Amino acid sequence: MPTIAVASRLVYEVAQPTTLLVNVAVATTPRQSIEHERFTVKPNVPQTHLPVGEERNRFVRLSLEPGEVDISYEARVRLEPVTEDAPSVEQTDYESLPPQVMSYLNPSRYCESDRLASYALAEFGAMEANYERVDAICDWIASHIEYRGGTTTALTTACDVLLQRTGVCRDFAHLGITFCRALGIPARYVSGYACHLDPPDFHGFFEAYLTGRWFLFDPTRLAPTSGLVRIGVGRDAADTAFATIWGVAQLKEKTVSAEAVIGSETVGEDNAAEVAVSTA
Amino acid sequence: MPTIAVASRLVYEVAQPTTLLVNVAVATTPRQSIEHERFTVKPNVPQTHLPVGEERNRFVRLSLEPGEVDISYEARVRLEPVTEDAPSVEQTDYESLPPQVMSYLNPSRYCESDRLASYALAEFGAMEANYERVDAICDWIASHIEYRGGTTTALTTACDVLLQRTGVCRDFAHLGITFCRALGIPARYVSGYACHLDPPDFHGFFEAYLTGRWFLFDPTRLAPTSGLVRIGVGRDAADTAFATIWGVAQLKEKTVSAEAVIGSETVGEDNAAEVAVSTA
Amino acid sequence: MPTIAVASRLVYEVAQPTTLLVNVAVATTPRQSIEHERFTVKPNVPQTHLPVGEERNRFVRLSLEPGEVDISYEARVRLEPVTEDAPSVEQTDYESLPPQVMSYLNPSRYCESDRLASYALAEFGAMEANYERVDAICDWIASHIEYRGGTTTALTTACDVLLQRTGVCRDFAHLGITFCRALGIPARYVSGYACHLDPPDFHGFFEAYLTGRWFLFDPTRLAPTSGLVRIGVGRDAADTAFATIWGVAQLKEKTVSAEAVIGSETVGEDNAAEVAVSTA
Amino acid sequence: MPTIAVASRLVYEVAQPTTLLVNVAVATTPRQSIEHERFTVKPNVPQTHLPVGEERNRFVRLSLEPGEVDISYEARVRLEPVTEDAPSVEQTDYESLPPQVMSYLNPSRYCESDRLASYALAEFGAMEANYERVDAICDWIASHIEYRGGTTTALTTACDVLLQRTGVCRDFAHLGITFCRALGIPARYVSGYACHLDPPDFHGFFEAYLTGRWFLFDPTRLAPTSGLVRIGVGRDAADTAFATIWGVAQLKEKTVSAEAVIGSETVGEDNAAEVAVSTA
């Protein structure tokens, strides 16, 4: 059970009175506990902590005056994932899905699962409805989409990615979510910190709901799932932006890090196809 | 305070074992109470009642065998809307929005508020940030978009509607929601029953969050807001379909009605610009 | 060298003074000659014959008064295609393309070759640049896209088809053209008559420019290329509609036929991968 | 009748053997004659001059080896536009359009006139069908779309521009063309040099076909139409790129200029609504 030290720092130049909504603090879940954390804003403006959505994403709202603002977060997080034998993890029948996962079947802004229903069925419909199918979707994405920075924008959707064949972590996750939903698998976007990500940055991956639990998937294959630390979850990246600006502010600096604490279990290369990792 | 009698009937021909998710039962809110209701399915299959989402939309899940299934709902609903003097209803500042409305600012599948940010600002940015601006948005939609059945599909988005200039109630609501969100006003889709709708059918409209309350708007201008009865709410129509089919079933018959009960307050032509109607 | 008898009949109910542009008469090319033809309009309104574009598509313009109009065309067409050994047909280098084919490399309304550049390269970039690659593109389309009427509209583009995985002849041709252009192969849409098409209708296919000639391809695989009779060519279907209406007219009847004349060479199942058919 | 001195210089760093198609030389038309021109390429590689399309755009194809290539063009051009009294310039009836302008009514890659048919009709359908309507379209574009560099890409279409409300000259021209075609007015893209453009660059504008002639329009309102010098025309910008690269080459420098020759007629601020300028 690894313990991960995460940190992020955002520096903005604020040009006029601006409200900033920040989502960088890690979540507390049955399988992810915070041993220590510190959230610092300089200058020391009032912070409104907002637990948003059913998943209670930890947004912090800051009312900022013109000038520089320096936002730092650091935490030590203990992960106790449930791992299961991948072949035994089955898709949950539609008629057995619990109410709280139902809306994660619906199409969303960047995940047009309604448009890609036939596509998903043609590519993955014949496979067995289990963990390995979702893993095969991730393999398909990793082999069909080229990871290339600067080729997508905040408006890029799963359909765009599929056509242009390039994207970044957020786009890979959106495409994975879209295929899952089209196949009847509830899926949701997760923003977080990730060990071994190079270059270090916030990361975007996804969870699929199988056998009554949410399982982690990262179609970029750029970071081991055992080192993923959740910040927020949502229908897609629209729900979990690390920063939302109402006003005028310019990001001057962004540094992000995540590392396994020495002495804790090592975060290594996992083989997603054999071990299913659940955080719920 | 009107009392409304609503009813709907859906008949499907089911071709193979199918799960049907139905959302036709009216919601209970502080301002909408059910005096009586009856939900009947023939043949009498087990019904799983699923309260979905934070708003606890009343989905019913049915596991159906091949053959005809006849789903009837009827209810008597008492509405106690809060009405306010429209000019006094102000937009809530972004820095004062409560957590539970924040996600209704995000773009969604059919409401690409991120793509239409400049559009909304150019058309409505100079107006005062209050109830009357949202009402002006509805007037704009009513005068720019032609209500014409059969011109849109389940995949049509607000951007599509804006370009093609035609749509139905769902499309009108999506466009209204999109403009609101782009202007920083939380807005959500509402499915429901509507008095005086001709031809009678399920209706789609929207709510905008102002001065700490959700206010009703119907940009189709086809039914008085005082006669709108809520079924479900969601980010857009994807969350509140009256029926979702996993399997193969053909809709054979759909009848919908809504009428003010004699003796109760009449549902009349309201003038949305003067009286703001809130159901929260 | 087969001789084909083609015929078509269009009946419109004209509601107000309307100009109709009809494109149903077969083209004359070095390899396609008309032995006999008759174009009849009842009532007998003046016909303006317009040779449109560099390819001189044979449009006929009719100024119609309200009432029924019955447009008939029939022709007997001799085809003398050049057939070549497929493996010997190479792609023409960009630096050797003649001016008159250059614009068939550009993206067009329904063929967004600029958006699908990476897609085409990823799927077909590693293949040898010859006839067989274009044939492989057609195979890919035939196996990835389901031919299904009513799933596309006049607005559907190659990108749409790729995402939704269904379409009709026009959509199949658009996708083939798009992939070709993205790979540096001039490609153009051809409307025509087709033997053995079931049900009989106008057909849409495409030509790709290789080794200094235009070669025929039909990714629907629904009709033998040796029985394809050209009406018009263009950048995509926008250039070769069988009818364009300026005014108000309703199509009441459409019948189309194409059959090899008895005694001429039989139109059979060709194996496109072995014999390359050129009409230029 | 002004005489304009135009010049452009393009410097590329070529990384591997590359074919470059350049379109910077001015056109010769009945109303635009070249008094002098010089096209220089260093190093001195062979130039293939390709007159592309019905309009015989003057493309030059260069086969380049790795290294720097410096392409210079300069010309002295005499313009003899026909100017007419704007109110007397009428739209040509569809039934009177000559064949060579017909394809300029069709939708093209960046001008989806089929999607915007209702939009154009709703905004401009009630106006008189003449020069002033096209001028009103340009005014509408100038007042609804913000000219802002870097907000669009080579893939941006007229529909995109309409939704996002920003663009550059090419986008303004595409939107003008789209509205014209949707209203039955043949319209085509023109690339060229423009006096008084600040900062100087290649320019994109459009021509609409009225009363049997092509008239110039520039919806950016950034340069007087009397100082516009044509390079190429096409259905949209896809047909008239100043450079198309097949291979790998990086643009290192681009300088463009256009100035009225001293002693010739001054190029001034024209009032497009009163004087219609035709170059045909």
Notable features of this structure?
four-stranded antiparallel beta sheet; 280 residues; Immunoglobulin-like; globular; alpha+beta; C8orf32 fold; homotetramer; 2 domains; 16 strands
Structure description:
The structure is a homotetramer of 280-residue chains. Chain A is α+β, with helices and mostly antiparallel strands and 280 residues long. The first copy, chain A, has two domains: 96 residues, Immunoglobulin-like, CATH 2.60.40; 169 residues, Roll (C8orf32 fold), CATH 3.10.620.30. Helix content of chain A is 17%, strand content 40%. Chain A contains five helices and 16 strands. Chain A has a four-stranded antiparallel sheet, with no helix packed on it. In chain A, helix 2 packs across helix 5. At the A-B interface, strand 4, strand 5 and helix 1 of A face strand 4, strand 5 and helix 1 of B.
Helix and strand arrangement:
Four copies of one chain form a homotetramer.
Chain A: E1 3-14, E2 18-22, E3 32-42, E4 47-52, E5 57-64, E6 67-79, E7 82-85, H1 99-102, H2 117-124, H3 131-144, E8 146-147, H4 158-164, E9 166-167, H5 169-182, E10 187-194, E11 203-210, E12 213-217, E13 228-234, E14 243-246, E15 249-260, E16 275-278
Parallel strand pairs in A: 8-9
Antiparallel strand pairs in A: 1-6, 1-15, 2-5, 2-14, 3-6, 4-5, 7-16, 10-11, 10-13, 11-12
Total count of domains of chain A: 2
Total strands of chain A: the figure is 16
Query: Which stretches of chain A are poorly predicted, pLDDT < 50 over at least 5 residues?
Result: none
Whole-Å distance between the termini of chain A?
A: 15 Å
Roughly how much helix do the residues of chain A carry, as a percent range? 10-25%
- CATH top level class name of the largest domain in chain A: Alpha Beta
CATH topology name of the largest domain in chain A, in short, is C8orf32 fold
> Radius of gyration of chain A in whole Å, from Cα?
19 Å
Q: Which strand order do you get reading across the main beta sheet of chain A?
A: 3-6-1-15
* Principal-axis shape of chain A: globular
Helix/strand order of chain A, N-terminal first: EEEEEEEHHHEHEHEEEEEEE
Looking at the chains present, what oligomeric state does this protein adopt? homotetramer
Tell me about the largest β-sheet of chain A: 4 strands, antiparallel
Structural class of chain A: alpha+beta
Mean pLDDT of chain A, nearest integer? 94
Per DSSP, the total helix count of chain A is 5
Residue share in β-strands of chain A:
35-45%
At CATH's second level, what is the architecture of the largest domain in chain A?
Roll
Question: Biggest interface between protein chains, with counts per chain?
Answer: A-B, 35 and 35 residues
